[in-house]
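Lab notebook, bench 4. Continuing the backlog of folding jobs that were queued last week. Each job is logged with the same field layout so the records can be merged later without manual cleanup. Today's entry covers GMP reductase, a 345-residue chain. Filled in by technician R.K.

JOB TYPE: sequence-to-structure
TARGET: GMP reductase
LENGTH: 345
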Amino acid sequence: MHIETDLKLDFRDVLIRPKRSVLTSRSEAQITRTFRFRHATTGWTGLPLIASNMDTIGTFQMAASLSQSQALVALHKYYSASDLIEFFGSEASRYAFFTIGTSSDDWQKLVQVKRQVAVPMINIDVANGYTQQFLDAVVKLRDENPQAIIMAGTVVTAEMTEALIIAGADIIRVGIGSGSVCTTRDLTGVGFPQLSAVIECADAAHGLKGHVCSDGGCVVPGDIVKAIGGGADFVMLGSMLAGHAECAGEIVHESVDGRQVQKMVFYGMSSETAMNKHHGGVAEYRAAEGKTVTVPYKGEVKDTINAISGGLRSAMTYIGAEHLKEVTKRTTFIMVNAQRNTVYG
Ligand code: 5GP
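JOB STATUS: finished
OUTPUT FIELD FOLLOWS
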């Protein structure tokens, strides 16, 4: 047994110190970025936010809306091959990842879709990125897709980030147990505070010309800025995008203080709800590692993306970063005991 005693941090443990800046207006802040990848033969330009491949969030409708802001969607893996063929023939496919797990059905579906249309971005998604089987799958995926932008995860430490990049991934998804509807930490005791995980994995990835995507734990736009400040090249969002018109969640009405409010169902991909829906129930050898909640209905997602973009631009003027790529260099975190004034909630 071994104990690491240096304190690992979450978004709520820090704030970003403001710095003198020559930017005179938020409109000067460039929130899109151009990427060249370690393995993929093509680059990508856009707003590096990714809607999570949860089945309520990673929808075609979400992709259509986010592509208008040049932001990305990792499509969930429960669409049929014919629906995916139609989607990947459209404009929005430039902003979408095709998601697979390690099952042979998922891989066959990818092959089937690729026979008809190009699939330039692939997300290989497993809950635990630490197995040899997963590393082997990434090697095979790169072999079969030499040109694609491949994202793989999730992990939270430098050595596995390096191993996955060397195996063939371009972008490593970082985050275990930080998700809003995730119960992994309660159930298993395993996890890693999200900001420190991003800082450590980004440092490892960037040394190898790889990139990282911070996945899970963002609650407010400032958390996205902190993830980018910590070195995240991309940020994946679940709960911040939940409850919108573009989501696939069921709409329900709940009574709050005697008033009827519209809410939407949102659940983890390892929750009982998801396992009942896609796998005919929770298998006997495993426990659900996700929960089911209802979230306020928020209308169109473009308003939320505008709020996030506004936060990002404002943060960039506070720290003097004209381009997104400069945010990490311009970031000094200060450790804090409290984030904000809570007099009014
Ligand atoms: P959020 O942005 O909601 O905090 O986190 C979203 C992320 O939580 C997803 O992208 C995914 O990595 C993770 N996640 C989604 N569903 C589950 C689940 O049921 N269990 C666990 N452990 N993680 C989940």
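OBSERVATION: The chain is about 30% helix and 20% strand.
SIGNED: R.K.
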